Queue: 2 jobs
Job 1
Amino acid sequence: MRLLAGKNRFCALLLIAGTFMHELMHFVVGLMLGARPVSASLIPKRRPDGSFVLGSVSFASIRWYSAAPVALAPLAIITVPFLVASVRCAGTLAFQPWDLLLAFLIAPQFLCCWPSSTDWRLSMKSWPLFLLAGAAVWYFYPYVVHSLGLERIRLLIPH
């Protein structure tokens, strides 16, 4: 569907709820980290090759420490469908007419939570953060495995 949205306006309209959340996450995290968002757009724009850009957010000041959190912020959207499902399933499990609207709004979140190729390239400005996170995982992994009692699983535990 996401590939079709890049070529077809109708498919792009079906993803508008997901595109809104995707760009909103960039905007909010950029605002919180001082990246200074300067513009945002949800209007699909045609590229010279015929494909569409579904939305965009521009920033005035993305630094090395804010690039990855801002660029990868849409990954947090994956929690939205699960939260809605948990609330929806807390009561009766009978189908309600408004479930159609809910599905139309929630389904695009699964498709739009993945960062774009531009987002991934921008996140590489934060390579020191990735290096630090990798070192922390390498250092704390044995302690976490031991504290959770997972030694019997024998997952890549350094000896």
Job 2
Amino acid sequence: MSKPTVTGRSRSRRSQPKTAEPGAAVRTAPTGAARASTSIHVGILGFDGVTALDLVGPAEAFSIASEVVQSRDGGLPPYQITVLGLTGLRFVAESGLRFEAHALLEAAPPPDTLIVPGGRGLREHDATARLASWLRANAQACRRVASVCTGIYGLPSSGLLDGRRVATHWRFARDVAQRFPKLSPGAYRERFGA
């Protein structure tokens, strides 16, 4: 599958990747021969009402990391990024931007890492129930599941977060604490009075 593209902007600034100071780099993927035959599959969930930044930000971060490692070590890119549609291949962000997923979440193999972006659409019961059902059936096959900002609304119904410390945007901290009493709200309870 090809990586997501963003139209209307040049990627030429990436042709000269910045390098870290000696000893400061942290490897997040295998290098050289160990990486020659495999990429880490990062799936980013897409749905109507997603916050575009929460989807595009992680996609760009993993894309840049892949380009830097690949230009240094050669071989396959260390990360394969796919957008996985929750209810359909095409979806519209809160901002009105239109996206097209690579595959449906239900039809794709579980990714190594699943990133659940935030957005108004995931605070709706149907979307949350669909994601929770998929997570209960498939989360064990994922190495990690992460949420961005209000993407947390899609996770508690699966039971994956019960008793865990969680964080979200401060504006939603009180609502998360009230809606999901099995979660440990962590530092935001003291800071924001949730």
